[in-house]
Amino acid sequence: MRVVALQSGSNGNSIYVEAGDARLLFDAGISGRQAELRLAERGRDIRDVDAVFISHDHHDHIRCAGIYHRKFGLPVYVTRPTLRAASAGMDLGAISVLRHFRAGSAVRVDGVAVETVRTPHDGADGVAFVVDDGRRRLGILTDLGHVFDGLAELIGTLDAVLIETNYDPGMLAHGPYPAFLKRRIRGHGGHLSNVETAELLRVAGRNLAWAALGHLSEENNRPGLALETVSSAVGGLPLHLAGRYAATDVLNV
Predict the structure, then answer these.
(1) Using one digit for the tens of pLDDT, what is the confidence trace for 220-231?
(2) What's the Cα-to-Cα distance from 147 to each of 59, 191, 217, 230, rounded to whole Å?
(3) How far, in Å, CA of 56 to CA of 78, rounded?
(4) In which band, very low, low, confident or very high, does the pLDDT at 5 lie, cut at 50, 70 and 90?
(5) Which residues of 192-207 are buried (b: 16+ CB within 10 A; e: fewer)?
(6) pTM (2 decimals)?
(7) pLDDT number for residue 205
(8) What's the rounded Cα separation, in Å, for the pair 131 and 139?
(9) CA pair distance 25, 229, nearest whole angstrom
(10) Element (H or E) spanning 169, and its range?
(11) What 3-state class would DSSP assign to 180?
């Protein structure tokens, strides 16, 4: 299995995964041009992608789904509530090849299972993903809301994970955001902090080949701080950073 985080953060998200015979994108929050260029830089053609899976209705995850479909011919996999909520808030344009799934179900694409995991994040019908090619399991776990029941057990089944380290608690507490937004970020439907993710990986990540830290806040986190916080908890686990402005190298699982 091969993974490229094309971009991760509130300014746009898209993750590329090769698993078995399947070529998959998870989320469509960056422009079609940037997705195409960043894949080409790593020797991949976006037109070879078999499916685009959408995690939830927020702008930074779905805004370019219609463009990916119309420009590159990619089918879009999305829950009905997510599509309804997104369409009410933005113009996605025409998408003629839609594949609807139910949150919590598994979908097969070219023999690869994509498990969808309900999350308490404050989208309409949000999910995280696990890609299982029959030999390896990759988790794409961002916009999680909070550390919900079963999350640690899920991580324990994975061989690698891209997981959010959205904020540093001290930076958020003393930062410029208004009080209501701070409550939202650290609340039931918000995001995981560096500290929460570090503890999850410490407890449940012993079988991981690597973890990629993603969805970092620009205002309430720093890449070095996220890496330091998690590294101090997990010891020798290899860590990567899924950045806000550039793609990762090709990561092997």
Answers:
(1) 999 999 999 999
(2) 23, 9, 18, 16
(3) 8
(4) very high
(5) bbbbbbbbbbeebbee
(6) 0.97
(7) 95
(8) 6
(9) 29
(10) helix 169-174
(11) helix
The closest of 83, 85, 84, 128 to 103, measured between CA atoms, is 128
Contact, 213 vs 242, CB < 8 A?
yes
Please state, in angstroms and as integers, the Cα–Cα distance from residue 31 to each residue in 37, 49, 62, 65, 71, following that order.
10, 16, 10, 9, 11
Q: Exposure pattern of 145-180 as b/e (b: 16+ CB <10 Å)?
A: bbeeeebeebbeebbbbbbbbbbbeebbeeeebeee
Residue 45 half-sphere exposure toward CB, CA atoms < 13 A: 4
Backbone phi, then psi, for 92, in 5-degree steps? -85, -15
Domain ranges within the chain, ordered by starting residue: 2-252
CA separation for the pair 237, 99 (Å, rounded): 37
Helices (H), 73-150: 80-89
Which of the 8 DSSP states describes residue 248? P
Alpha helical stretches, state H, 189-247: 194-204, 223-234
Please name the fold of domain 2-252.
Metallo-beta-lactamase; Chain A (3.60.15)
Q: Which helix (H) or strand (E) holds 194?
A: helix 194-204
Alpha-carbon distance values, 24 to 19, 20, 217 (Å)? 8, 11, 25
| CA gap 56, 204 in Å, rounded | 25
Closest CA to 9 of 74, 66, 59, 67: 59
CA-atom Rg of the chain in angstroms: 17
